[in-house]
């Protein structure tokens, strides 16, 4: 089914930045809830939600000149992330990996966000106490997706 996915679109709050995902990029490799400290600060929230897609098939269709880039060199993983946001409205838009040919797209920017569901959580070691585990998630990583899985808590009596 490679390349057969329906194109997906999205954009920032003010509409200045728009993007399209076609081919394999239209179906994310995974969708994530990230609890790392930098994502918290980036979003001004307890977590970050994103679709991780191949760069091939990702196109900024409007407003590339409206994007500012911050090179985040202090990530938990040690990887440099290029974090992009809209200059006008401040919407968090994209992260680009220094190690992998992927783009991390802020999930709330998708035009079809109603259909978005996470498949994994990462940096659960930093999950805020008031945030529960995301429903339906297949994998929960203590730290990065290259590390160990979070142990499930046992419930019930023995």
Automatic annotation (TrEMBL):
UniProt GO MF annotations: carbon-sulfur lyase activity; metal ion binding
TM annotation in the entry: none
Entries under PROSITE patterns matching the protein: CENP_V_GFA
Keywords: Lyase, Metal-binding, Zinc
Domain spans labelled CENP-V/GFA: 8-117
UniProt-listed Gene3D superfamilies: glutathione-dependent formaldehyde- activating enzyme (gfa) (3.90.1590.10)
Domain of life (superkingdom): Eukaryota
PANTHER family in UniProt: DUF636 DOMAIN PROTEIN (AFU_ORTHOLOGUE AFUA_6G11530), GFA DOMAIN-CONTAINING PROTEIN
UniProt similarity note: Belongs to the Gfa family.
Stated name of the protein: Mss4-like protein
């Amino acid at each position: 089914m490679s390349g057969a996915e329906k194109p997906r679109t999205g954009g920032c709050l003010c509409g200045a930045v728009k993007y399209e995902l076609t081919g394999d990029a239209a179906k994310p490799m995974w969708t994530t809830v990230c609890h790392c400290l930098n994502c918290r600060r980036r979003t001004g929230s307890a977590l970050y939600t994103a679709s991780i897609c191949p760069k091939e098939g990702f196109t900024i269709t409007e407003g590339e000149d409206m994007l500012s880039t911050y090179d985040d060199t202090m990530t938990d993983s040690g990887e440099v992330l290029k974090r992009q946001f809209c200059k006008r409205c401040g919407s968090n838009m994209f992260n680009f990996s220094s190690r992998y040919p992927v783009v991390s797209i802020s999930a709330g920017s998708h035009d079809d966000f109603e259909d978005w569901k996470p498949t994994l959580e990462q940096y659960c070691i930093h999950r805020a106490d008031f945030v529960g585990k995301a429903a339906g998630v297949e994998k929960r990583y203590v730290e990065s997706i290259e590390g160990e899985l979070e142990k499930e808590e046992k419930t019930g009596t023995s």
